[in-house]
Amino acid sequence: MSSPRSSTVELALLRGWLHGIKGAFTYATIARRASDHGQPVSERTLRRAVRQTLDGRLPALRMVEAFAHGAVHARAHAAGGSRGAAPPEVQRAEQAGRALWEAAERSLHWRAQTRPHRVTWVPGHITTPAGLARAVRRLHQEAGNPSLRVLAAAPKPTAGSPAARSSWL
């Protein structure tokens, strides 16, 4: 069940914009048009992007841009344009989506900073691979389930820090 635990006005605006730009087109149509015009994306990914806004989460910027790209091209094809939409029209839609996404991202980031999150659980002695997997999953959940891209982009430990590179698996 969805819970608007950290939903903001900006996130609601992004959700409304996604629904508005989708219009009467199916997710499959938007995904096909986006893929046909250089933004490969699946129907499921587009659905997930909208669902994430309902859950108070922010979809990836790339998904919002692909959504805009596909919807604008779908609208142009429906109006009889065999080549899709004009580049300025696509850019305007992508910029609108990007602006709403950035506002929602700032809003969610601000909310996250107002309540600092502390990891409360520290694993004990780990003796098995299964124990290590459980510990990593639990730490990941307590850190707010960041995506792998966020984890990869996080600052890496330096030599002399408590978690030096040699301690990483």
Low-confidence stretches: 1-6, 164-169
Number of strands: 0
Name the overall outline: elongated
Percentage of residues in DSSP E strands: under 5%
Gap between N and C termini: 35 Å
| Share of helical residues | 55-70%
Largest sheet: none
Total helices: the number is 7
Q: Based on helices, strands and strand pairing, what is the structural class? A: mainly alpha
Rg (C-alpha, Å): 20 Å
SSE order, one letter for each helix or strand: HHHHHHH
Average pLDDT score: 78
Q: How are the elements arranged and paired?
A:
Blueprint: H1 9-22, H2 27-36, H3 43-54, H4 61-78, H5 87-114, H6 129-142, H7 148-153
Helix pairs in contact: 1-5, 2-3, 2-4, 4-5
Short key terms for the protein model shown above:
169 residues; mainly alpha; 7 helices; elongated
Question: Can you put this structure into words, describing what you see?
Answer:
The protein is 60% helix and 0% strand. It is mainly α and 169 residues long. It is elongated, with a radius of gyration of 20 Å.
Give a quick summary of the entry.
This protein has helices at about 10-20, 25-35, 45-55, 60-80, 85-115, 130-140, 150-155.
